[in-house]
Amino acid sequence: MGTANPLQHVPEPLPDRLYEPAPGERQLSVRAVLAGIVVGGVLSAMDVYLGLRLGITAVGSSLVGAVLAYALFAALRPKSPLSVLETNIAQTTASGAGTMAAAAGLVAPIPALAMLGHKLPLHGLLLWALSIAYLGSLVAVPLRRRYIVVERLRFPTGTAAAGTILAMAGRKGETLAQARALLRFGGGAAVFVLAAYFVRPLEEPPIAALGLAVLAKWAFFPTLSPVMVGVGLLIGPRVGASLLAGAVVAWGALGPVASRLGWAPGPVMSMTSGPRGWLLWVGVAIMLAEGMTTLALSWRSLAAGLAGVLGWGRGGGPGASEPLGGDEVPRWWWLGGLGLATAAAILLGWLFFGVHPLLGLVAVALSLVLAQVAVRCAGETDLNPMRMMVSVTQLVFGAIAPGAVRTNLTAAAVTSAGAAQAGDMMQDFRTGHLLGASPRKQFIAQLWGIGAGVLFCVPAYYLFARAFTIGEGELPAPAAHAWRAVAELLARGPGALPGSALWPVLAGALFGAALPLLQACSPRLRPYLPSGLAFGLAFLVPAQLSLTIFLGALVLVGWRACRPAQWERLGQVVACGLIAGESVAGVLRAALQLCGVRPLVGGG
Questions:
Q1: 3-state DSSP call for residue 601?
Q2: Which uninterrupted H or E stretch holds 379?
Q3: Burial code of 300-311, b = ≥16 C-beta within 10 A, e = fewer?
Q4: Structure pTM?
Q5: Residue 13 in contact with residue 427, Cβ under 8 Å?
Q6: Distance CA 552, CA 547 (A)
Q7: Backbone φ/ψ region at 330: left (φ over 0), alpha (ψ -120 to 50), beta
Q8: Which of 274, 414, 425, 429 is 20 to 30 A from 473 via CA?
Q9: Average pLDDT along the chain, 604 residues, taken 10 residues at a time
Q10: Backbone phi and psi for residue 493, each to the nearest 5 degrees, phi listed first
Q11: In angstroms, rounded to a whole number, what is the distance separating the alpha carbons of residues 152 and 16?
Q12: Structure letter (DSSP) for residue 303
């Protein structure tokens, strides 16, 4: 891996350019696209597993895709290593595939609809995922010139990816060490998780048998999960501590109180009558209030993005009337593709989800507007406010289609895909711009990546759905529960809340709104304030997941303090190895369960 600021090691030979390609340098090669497909496919399947377990996707696939694709070739030791531009194509392909778990809706809207009894056939989900993902990528194409060439927004992840690609090209020995670390930790995690399938106490020690029945009842103990340790290594101490604090408040205080007072008398993990279903609403209130307040405080970026929508047809600002270069994406490509993707999304939404075509058209139009707003925010802050865009969509459709929960979730899925893919494509365009790459070839690579990602992540989702009950047990799907809760609240009003939850929900909303306001008033407080998203998420997942992630964050703190140089080189690679190893093993565990292979010790 590069350092925290990889660009500081790279001279800048041209304005807004880090690299000048050699004449005839290889770029859109078969091997680069295949490397991106393999890496991105694994990332997409990994994110399905992680999303269904924790409600989030792992990391930015552009940066990780660049590192893993280059590390893959370093391990294979070909006669000619990937060139700088080939590595860029590999990361573009990988990022297109890697975002498909979120873009296809497999983390939230699709499982939320399944919980309501609406399950898509495999071919339906494949077509739906392709249509909305291509729609998002096509939206980004005409925005490239405005935001990257004219306004020169930084897009920090894309900028870091460019610097990392150049750093790897200059340090081949270090990249080989990264590849070895990735394989060792990924393989070790996979072996442990498969062993834990047969010997269940390896993963979940018998806490109750040790006289700790109360902790066992509330799942207040760490689980030996490589993926959660890897997430902790990636997110750092502030977010890890926020998860721990949220778990203590939710599962150590509010949950037991709700159970004792009869507000949630059912089993602890029951979504209908137990503390878990009661706590869900408080957590969603915290996350929703924090997200909407953050969105309101970003009004300048929102206004600029909306102004871009209004000026889209007039050329996009000063300098945008300059003639397009030969490597630009042809206008008829994205206009024709946008029309086809729009028609497909509306038709498939009608056929598979029962969304009226007029409402489908509104969903697509809203997605086009909000995707541009999300791209602007990503360019300025590196934060893609996909979650906030989804909340806006759910509020809009709660007003224009009251009571239609399925329509609400489907429309939000379109917006989510548009924000995810448009933001990802623009980060890749920024990387390519810094490296002197061809936008047209990057666009082709992204299309290949999206198609490949669908073929990886959709079957993985179906395998998990058949082997486990999504929304319970091993795959609690907290994001799906949150989306469904918001849709039902908008459809049924306060009556959707469980008894005695109204005041705790209001308190949670006030707490969530206060966090970004305090940060805006005093930025110095930010390191000491919890992340509202992480704090609220801890209400939605069993406490053991939050505790394990916090332990992973502590490992990061210790590693970075004792061996900072080693952490800079290998930290993120080790984290990705742990996450990928358990995710791949999770697919194998699902297959074992479907085949009727039973554990040897513990479990049924």
A1: strand
A2: helix 357-381
A3: ebbebbeebbee
A4: 0.81
A5: no
A6: 9
A7: beta
A8: 414
A9: 36 59 87 89 86 74 72 73 88 88 88 88 90 86 81 78 78 69 85 87 67 68 83 85 92 90 85 85 86 74 54 41 54 86 92 91 87 77 70 85 88 86 85 89 92 91 89 85 86 75 88 90 84 87 88 91 86 82 84 83 63
A10: 75, -165
A11: 8
A12: H
DSSP 250: I
- Distance of alpha carbon 32 from alpha carbon 39, whole angstroms: 11
Could you tell me if 513 and 318 are in contact, meaning their C-beta atoms sit under 8 angstroms apart? no
Q: How far is CA 175 from the centre of its chain?
A: 25
Distance from the Cα of residue 17 to its chain's centroid: 29
Measured distance CA(143)–CA(329) in Å, rounded: 12
Residues 6+ apart with CB under 8 A from 125: 104, 110, 458, 461, 462
Count how many Cα atoms sit within 13 Å of the Cα of residue 267 in the half-sphere of its side chain: 6
For residue 585, count CB atoms less than 10 angstroms from its CB and return exposed for 0-12, middle for 13-18, buried for 19 or more: buried
DSSP conformation class of 205: -
Main-chain dihedrals φ then ψ at residue 302, nearest 5 degrees: -65, -45
274 φ/ψ sector (left φ>0, alpha ψ -120 to 50, else beta): beta
Cα three-residue angle 69-73-78, rounded to 5 degrees: 155
pLDDT tens per residue across span 401-436? 888 889 999 998 888 888 888 888 888 888 888 888
Sign (positive or negative) of CA dihedral 271, 276, 281, 287: negative
Per the CB < 8 A criterion, the answer to whether 434 and 6 are in contact is: no
Q: Which residues contact 289 (CB under 8 A, 6 or more apart)?
A: 508, 509, 510, 511, 512, 513, 532
What lies within 8 Å, CB to CB, of 410 at 6+ separation is 109, 113, 349, 353, 355, 363
How many helical (H) and strand (E) elements, i.e. helices and strands, does the chain have? 23, 0
Residue 516 tokens, joined? 């970004």
Q: What is the DSSP string of 111-166?
A: HHHHHTT----HHHHHHHHHHHHHHHHHHHHHHHIIIIIIS----HHHHHHHHHHH
- Using the structure block, give the residue that is written with the tokens 């004449």: 23
Within a 10 A sphere around the Cβ of 598, how many other Cβ atoms? 10
